């Protein structure tokens, strides 16, 4: 497994190569092709001064690879259509079909699995936009913008944002119409995040108590140890000493995901390992991670990775 530390200089000089012949994306951006030694595919970037970027990723690596990024200050929101890997700082399974946000500044480290396409669309908002332009225009309304983006992270229930990012990904205009389109979509994305966070704060006016937080940590640890078993909400509510309704709402507040989604993410991470590293049948893999129905497992696996289990196994073992 190779370990690559990506910087802007390395991107431009070695790992990614400018590809002016690429016409698959918006005409106003810059297209890069991944070095043939590392993988196949492209990523496309549209820069709007020092305010924001639009990013489209569509490539894969030939081998498992650890990437380390020195991340500049930024706020981003992305949608993955296909992904297989783990964030390592802190550890978290990457999955498709969700809206993911990221707050830059510091080192970001991730493991990407070989041959699995990384297909994503993202908007990256830079400090000149949120620390200067937005604060000058809307000084009161944009306080807590980073908190709002952090709250959104890892949700699969944000259809408005999914539609917006899909529209951006599909757009092929150029000239001033493209510039105005991208500016408008960035403003719309920020407004969607702020509005969603505002509604959440109205519901969550009181912070979680230390007792509740400690109980939820125990619940999460129990799930991590017993994810392949048939875990019921009744069982978890007894462990947490909470009612089921309170457990569901407080778990969502603390971990940003439902209990069902948390269990599924743990199961799919293990399923990816079994598909790539063993010769177990799909049915056996399904049962190993807690699903009696191979068809149900296949549906959920495709939602998580963007690929059916057999497709994932075929390209992960190349």
UniProtKB/TrEMBL annotation:
Gene3D superfamilies in UniProt: Homeodomain-like
GO molecular function, one term: sequence-specific DNA binding
Keyword Repressor: no
Sorted UniProt keywords: DNA-binding, Transcription, Transcription regulation
Transcription keyword on record: yes
Record-annotated HTH araC/xylS-type domain positions: 217-315
Protein name (record): Helix-turn-helix transcriptional regulator
Organism: Candidatus Scatousia excrementigallinarum
Lineage of source species: Bacteria, Candidatus Scatousia
């Amino acid at each position: 497994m190779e370990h690559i530390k990506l910087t802007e200089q390395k991107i431009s000089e070695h790992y990614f190569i400018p590809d002016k012949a690429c016409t698959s994306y918006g005409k106003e951006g810059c297209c890069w092709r991944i070095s043939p030694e590392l993988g196949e595919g492209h990523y496309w970037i549209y820069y709007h001064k020092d305010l924001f970027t639009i990013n489209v990723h569509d490539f894969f690596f030939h081998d498992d690879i650890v990437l380390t990024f020195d991340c500049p200050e930024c706020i981003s929101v992305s949608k993955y259509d296909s992904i297989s890997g783990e964030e390592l700082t802190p550890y978290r399974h990457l999955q498709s079909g969700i809206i993911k946000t990221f707050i830059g500044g510091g080192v970001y480290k991730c493991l990407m699995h070989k041959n699995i396409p990384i297909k994503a669309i993202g908007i990256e908002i830079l400090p000149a936009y949120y620390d200067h332009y937005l604060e000058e225009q809307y000084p009161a309304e944009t306080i807590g913008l980073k908190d709002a983006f952090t709250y959104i992270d890892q949700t699969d229930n944000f259809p408005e944002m999914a539609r917006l990012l899909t529209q951006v990904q599909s757009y092929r205009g150029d000239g001033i119409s493209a510039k105005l389109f991208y500016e408008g979509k960035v403003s719309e994305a920020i407004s969607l995040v702020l509005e969603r966070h505002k509604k959440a704060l109205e519901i969550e006016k009181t912070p979680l108590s230390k007792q509740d937080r400690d109980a939820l940590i125990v619940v999460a640890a129990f799930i991590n140890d017993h994810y392949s078993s048939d875990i019921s909400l009744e069982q978890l509510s007894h462990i947490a000493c909470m009612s089921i309704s309170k457990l569901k709402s407080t778990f969502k507040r603390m971990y940003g995901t439902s209990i069902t989604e948390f269990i599924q993410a743990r199961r799919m991470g293990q399923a990816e390992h079994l598909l790539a590293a063993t010769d177990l049948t799909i049915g056996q893999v399904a049962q190993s991670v807690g699903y009696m129905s191979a068809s149900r497992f296949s549906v959920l696996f495709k939602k998580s990775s963007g690929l059916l289990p057999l497709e994932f196994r075929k390209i992960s073992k190349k």
